[in-house]
Amino acid sequence: TEAGAATGSGVGTKGDTKTLNLYQENGNYYLSDVTHTGTIETYDAKNSTSRYSIVYDTDTSFTSTAQRAAVDAHYYADQVYDYYKNVHNRDSYDNQGAPIYSIVHYSRNYNNAFWNGESMVYGDGDGVTFSPLSGANDVIAHELTHAVTEKTAGLVYENQPGALNESFSDVFGYFVDPDFLMGEDVYTPNRSGDALRSMSNPETYGQPAHMNNYKNLPNTSAGDWGGVHTNSGIPNKAFYNTVTKLGKAKSEKIYYRALAYYLTPNATFADAKAALVRSATDLYGSTDASTVSNAWNQVGVY
Ligand code: ASN
Ligand code: ZN
Ligand code: CA
Ligand code: CA
Questions:
Q1: What are the 10-residue block averages of pLDDT along the chain, 302 residues in total?
Q2: Domain's final residue, options 117, 151, 185
Q3: Is 77 touching ligand 1 by the criterion CB < 6 Å?
Q4: pTM (2 d.p.)
Q5: Distance between CA atoms of 255 and 116, rounded to whole angstroms?
Q6: Domain housing 61
Q7: Is 103 in a helix, a strand, or coil?
């Protein structure tokens, strides 16, 4: 048959079966979704840190153990792409249909995932702290939102703008997976009910939830660039205060507008509050804007 788009199915890291968008050529089926402006493709690092090859099969069924992390990365990349397109009319992270690449089986027992400036990269975890990280759709949304932030507000990855960068990634993780936990689907596979972070109770996982507890960490790799994954608890709690009052539908419009149009690279928490209040005013008026303002007052950002 002629080369082109195809559909198939795969088994994910939790043993669940899901539909996949594929590309077929010469009887090979590739994890390449060609139904959008840019392709959405999934690669296998085979435990290396530098060599990747596209995942493919000779039929439309991706069921082997080695394919599971790739199946989830591919499926959830599509889900997050669709979220940005359908809810915000944003065509990929650059809004110009940039191709979206995912890389799975990065390194060995690697307990993290990251955006490397051109691809989303996922470790398999060590089986104790994490299971394969592509198994959590909030993680995929978090990582792809780093790319969106890079192309929009450009929040620098240190101190308050860095904590905002982290928080916006968690916020869009929530919009794609509406619970207040981050990474719960892949964190500590032998223990249920916990997560990497909580937006409702940041303190549960060692994060501050108020400016009184802002942690001054050094702006070094060891200090997590001024505690970007620690102090994000404060804007995360402000988000929790907002979304529990205004609901998801309004909150996602407000947060997207602030990120895409108002925030700038060196924004502080106070700047983020002002940007969100302004977005809420634009979209919904002064009552909802006051709700946003109060959400930040409650975490000590005035
Ligand atoms: N998983 C981490 C994150 O996306 C990795 C990193 O970039 N520090 O925030
Ligand atoms: Zn992050
Ligand atoms: Ca979650
Ligand atoms: Ca767990």
A1: 96 98 98 98 98 98 98 99 98 98 98 97 98 99 98 98 99 99 98 98 98 98 98 99 99 99 99 99 98 99 98
A2: 151
A3: no
A4: 0.98
A5: 24
A6: 1-151
A7: strand
